[in-house]
Specification:
The protein is an alpha/beta fold. It is 37% helix and 13% strand. The strands form two sheets. A seven-stranded parallel β-sheet has the order 3-2-1-4-7-8-9, with helices on both faces.
Length: 286
């Protein structure tokens, strides 16, 4: 298993280096540490008939779309955001067939004013889980030191992967406090683990995920007293558009990845808040 994971990491780095432009970030494989004790969250009493709500960013494809699908199947309300909602055909179809459980909202997480506007639209309404899924890599070919570094991408990638999630947490803090789950889950990546980094590549993407980890650990510490728990979860190499060039045997089905992210989020509590997990419940080194 360890050999497979290491091979996946090498293959991922190779593939991402050949990805041009900006792609959805779905993370890489990992090197295992000891699994953390992850206990199920205690039951939270809810009013009879209460339906929990999850806000999923980047819900138009890949992991975000799968999270939306699975939460809707649970009977939850889902606010699914997309940069270009008119082009989000699968998400719109899911919403149309959901009996009102799924609502599609336009949102570019780089646009801080748009985040505030969306939060204002939902003022006074509870949000049980904020799922920060939207992310970009910047394209591996664009971040090769002393060869082809697109320095301006630091701004856009970090604004998307770090600033956006933190701003969403701030803007929707009243909604989270009004909810019953009170959780913020972040799709991180093993590529943000400094302790397991052995190659020199993906400068922009890796640093953005390491920064995401840091700001969310800070947030976990600050919000613990308010009963809000924060998770950082690496979904592993997933069979999405970004990973299309990897051998299928190295990829995890998106349905499985979605289930794993939801399972770990279910087990998130203020006791284990701020933990950096991979998909199987193993704790990754910072």
């Amino acid at each position: 298993m360890t050999t497979t994971r290491r091979l996946a990491t090498v293959l991922l780095a190779t593939i991402v280096l050949n990805v041009g432009g900006v792609a959805t970030a779905q993370a890489g494989a990992h090197t295992s540490a000891e699994p953390a004790p992850v206990s199920a969250a205690p039951a939270v009493p809810r009013p009879e008939g209460y339906v929990p709500t999850v806000l999923v960013t980047g819900a138009n494809r890949g992991i975000g779309l799968e999270l939306t699908r699975q939460y809707a199947a649970r009977g939850w309300k889902v606010i699914g955001t997309a940069r270009k909602p008119a082009e989000a055909k699968e998400l719109n179809a899911l919403a149309a067939a959901s009996d009102g459980r799924v609502v599609v909202e336009g949102l570019d997480v780089m646009d801080l004013a748009a985040i505030d506007a969306l939060a204002q639209k939902y003022a006074g309404k509870s949000v049980d889980i904020l799922f920060n899924n939207a992310g970009v890599t910047g394209g591996g070919a664009n971040q090769q030191f002393a060869k082809n570094m697109h320095w301006e991408l630091f701004d856009s990638v970090h604004r998307t992967n770090v600033v956006g999630p933190l701003k969403l947490a701030e803007a929707f803090l009243p909604n989270l406090l009004a909810g019953y789950e009170k959780k913020i889950s972040n799709v991180s990546s093993s590529q943000g683990s400094i302790g397991t980094t052995k190659t020199g590549t993906l400068y922009i993407y890796r640093s953005s995920k390491a920064a995401l980890n840091m700001v969310m650990v800070n947030l976990a510490n600050q919000l613990k007293s308010k009963g809000i728990a924060v998770a950082l979860i690496d979904p592993g190499p997933v069979d999405t558009d970004m990973m299309a060039s990897l051998p299928k045997k190295m990829l995890r089905p998106v349905t499985t990845a979605g289930s794993d992210l939801i399972r770990i989020t279910d087990q998130l509590t203020v006791q284990n808040t701020g933990t950096y997990w991979t998909f199987d419940g193993t704790v990754l080194p910072w």
